[in-house]
Design brief:
45% of the residues lie in helices and 21% in strands. It is an alpha/beta fold. The protein folds into 3 domains: 10-39 and 176-271, Rossmann fold, CATH 3.40.50.10090; 42-173, 3-Layer(aba) Sandwich (Rossmann fold), CATH 3.40.50.10090; 273-366, Arc Repressor Mutant, subunit A (Orthogonal Bundle), CATH 1.10.10.10. The strands form 5 sheets. A 5-stranded parallel beta sheet has the order 6-5-4-7-8, with helices on both faces. Helix 3 (70-82) packs parallel to helix 5 (103-111), helix 6 runs parallel beside helix 7 (152-161) and helix 13 (301-311) crosses helix 15 (332-346). The protein is elongated, with a radius of gyration of 26 Å. The relative contact order is 0.11.
Length: 367
């Protein structure tokens, strides 16, 4: 039987909202998941501020309404309905020109019984403000539904273009209650104990990078994402902070959660599986597991680091280079112990050969 496509792989998830859907999909495909939300979506306390913002919008009757997120738009109407303001809000927005930031925002606008006039060319607040200029909607009263991470520069720009700006904040980003899980995820990334790390929001990516810096491992974290741990972001906006830090990022063809899951699966199952043959024995490295003629061996951190280093070349790997690959560093004795354990775990005679005074070589060919 063919293994599940993500069997043997360990994937980090940094999102909070819809994380259960993402984790479930990855686990169904055989992955082990390490979940550590970088940020959490927190509704405004008691919704009092949102109700007051809604009353201000109703009183001002804006000419233009900018919708940035589907979740924010839906939550705005949920709170308005609960406060008895739903019908008034709908009536006011029906007379305004509605501009939406991407398909999710469009879907929420239509679900509210409204119709968008324009859709931003890119799913960014900057592109939405660009549409205000492009449509010659300057000098008017504008309401903007903000997402959890306010782009102050674009909000200032919008104020310069408008007679009045009415911000509406249905939710905000907040730090999780404890940092321990995120710190463990960062440490696992730096020690190459993850195969992939997923990001679904730019604020989440920024928060993860900032925590790595606070941990004193910022450079290590980016290096890991540049070498052994593939970073997968839901879209270019989310990828922005990672790319600015120097990390390469893989994107799906469509900027949706389902496409993100498919992209992670394709990247790992099609490009991160190493197939080898040693005599009549076939081996397959999948993340942290090695299949030896169908027998699955889960490797520990040291054994995994050694096997990856040896499997990456047909040449002899020097002892000092192997020592550097061990997660916590090692001397000659520790390296010999790790090599012995790797040989015992794989149980393929002659697979890992010693080259006297030089190092070690994997007696296998890539398929």
């Amino acid at each position: 039987m063919k293994p599940e496509p993500l069997a043997g792989f360990r994937i980090g998830v940094t999102s909070d909202r819809r994380s259960a859907d993402l984790i479930s999909a990855l686990e169904r495909r055989g992955a082990q998941v390490l979940h550590a939300p970088a940020l959490t979506i927190a509704p405004l306390d008691a919704d009092t501020a949102l109700v007051e913002q809604t009353r201000a919008v109703i009183d001002a009757r804006p000419d233009v309404v900018l919708v940035t997120t589907g979740y924010g738009m839906r939550r705005w109407f949920e709170v308005a309905d609960a406060a008895g303001l739903g019908s008034e809000l709908t009536e006011v927005l029906e007379t305004a020109r509605v501009l939406a930031r991407g398909p999710k925002a469009v879907g929420a606008v239509r679900a509210a019984g409204l119709e968008e006039q324009r859709v931003a060319a890119a799913e960014t607040t900057a592109a939405l403000v660009d549409e205000v200029e492009r449509a010659e909607l300057t000098g008017l009263r504008v309401a903007i539904q903000l997402h959890g991470y306010t782009d102050d520069a674009q909000l200032s720009r919008l104020r310069d273009l408008s007679a009045q700006v009415l911000p509406v904040t249905p939710y905000r980003w907040a730090q999780p209650s404890g940092y321990d899980r995120l710190l463990r995820l960062i440490d696992a990334t730096c020690s190459r104990q993850l195969d992939a790390l997923t990001f679904t929001s730019a604020p989440g990516a920024e928060a993860t990078l900032a925590m790595a810096e606070r941990r004193g491992r910022g450079a290590e974290f980016v290096a890991a994402l540049s070498e052994d741990v593939v970073a997968v972001a839901v879209g270019p906006v989310t990828a922005g902070p990672l790319r600015a830090a120097g990390a390469p990022v893989v994107l799906p063809d469509r900027y949706r959660l389902g496409a993100l899951i498919r992209r992670v699966t394709e990247e790992l199952a099609e490009h991160r599986v190493v197939r080898l043959r040693s005599g009549d024995v076939r081996l397959e490295l999948r993340g942290r597991a090695v299949s030896v003629d169908g027998r699955v061996v889960l490797l520990g951190p040291n054994s995994l680091a050694l096997f990856k280093a040896l499997a990456g070349t047909s040449a002899v790997v020097r002892r000092q280079d192997l020592q550097r690959r061990l997660p916590d560093g090692a001397d000659d004795h520790a390296l010999e112990v790790a090599i012995s354990r790797l040989r015992q775990a794989l149980a393929v005679p002659g697979l890992v050969t010693t080259v006297v005074k030089r190092g070690y070589r994997l007696n296998a060919e890539r398929l």
